[in-house]
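Possible regression after last week's pipeline update?

I re-ran a chain I had predicted before the update to compare outputs. Posting the input and the new output here so someone can diff against the archived version. Not blocking, just want to make sure nothing changed silently.
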Amino acid sequence: TDRPTDRPTDRPTDRPTDRPTDRPTGRPTDGMEHIGRRGGLATAGKSGVDRSKLAEFPSRLQMYSVPPTNELSLEEFEVFALERMKVLKAVERAKLRDNKRGTEYSGLIKDALRKHLLLESAKNARPGDEEKLVEQRRKDHVSHFILRLAYCRTEELRRWFLANECELFRYNCEAAGAEEVDLFLTSNDLKYAPIPTDEKARIKDKLRWGKEQTAAGDYFKVPFESVVDLVARRKVYVQRGFAYVPRSELISILMGVFRQRLAQALMATAKALPQMEEDERVLPMLNNMSKQYLGSTDYGKVRTGSEVTADQLNALAAQSFPLCMRNLHQNVRERHHLRHGGRMQYGLFLKGIGLSLEEAMVFWRGEFSKSMGPEKFDKEHAYNIRHNYGQEGKRTNYTPYSCMKIISGGAPGAGDHHGCPFRHFDAGHLKSKLKAYGVKPAGITELLDLVKDHHYQIACTKYFELTHDLGATNFRVEHPNEYFN
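New output (post-update):
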């Protein structure tokens, strides 16, 4: 829980006071339709372990519905969190290196889990291994809730945590096998049962459309909006608002439930988090965790020792700027003007790469004066530039925009040039821009495929590799200033 008590305690917990009820009773809380359970779902494996001793964690797959209540030392708190963060970063890196979820993807995640968050199956365990299995699953359970606290505070943090936790859940489901997935369904009261034989017979011809589909095996009937990824890939038959999902795609249903519940829990935790501000032991650790592993470096201060001058920007834009900033630089050079959104995005980026206030005034005055005259520039724009550098108003040290802020921010309108080209450009515009910047046809195709699948930051990383003649790298661009560095 994250409900603080009046007395000191060494048990940091994560129970939001207004946490939504995650444990379904009779009907899944996400509103999915379900058909009465047909018998046959396994509740115990054929291993030699005593299943009764695994009652707290019957499956290595978890929905993380109930927060931990056991005691936890501060040392365990930090170690558990760091170990899980290493796994989530490996998941993120695996998606970057192998977006098709092939052997490299599986190998990277499997190796990270083996080193930092081992979860062994009870099926292959021996008598006497119960305590070891419970401890593994306890660590998985507790570490999830610690990071839920660390990553609930902002939309950017929640997006990162939700995306990578869902990807880890998908991997664990695929690695678990049908028996353990059925056990997970039973332990979480998720009542998804195959459609009756007579209903299946009526639509048999519809179910075996396409080269990959057959009518053999079990099918589950769910609202189509709960499996939009399968609908988008034309993997399911849809009729009257319901999708008929084969058992081989059951994981997509579970992913939808997991994502919805975790998103709700993150919002509830964020609302309750202010109650923890009095705990001076835990909050600094949580702040450090999110900054260290999301790439949330403070780029708000002008870099010292590597100052940039206005006359260097043309060369730097061609060589070292991400696509969004190169596009902004090109437009300000051609049009001698940028609207407010573009000035904020580009101006703070320039501040972050080492352009001093004096050099910033030289650059902006030199460009804008070509379209409005120096007097009008000083009257309308000079104050805002000094304000961005903390020299006017409240003297706030404004920080350059991160990728997530740019991607999720308002879309540029007519005459605007801010935003993320991979997110906000149409395919034709993006293709011509990439071609103009020297990306080869094969690279353009690869980038457009990533954009089509909404992998905007992966596309930006790939753009970096293509424009610098690099092979696959082990990092993902999280911030335009990180790209420049």
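Follow-up from reviewer: compared with the archived run. The CA atoms of residues 152 and 270 lie 5 Å apart. Marking as no regression found.
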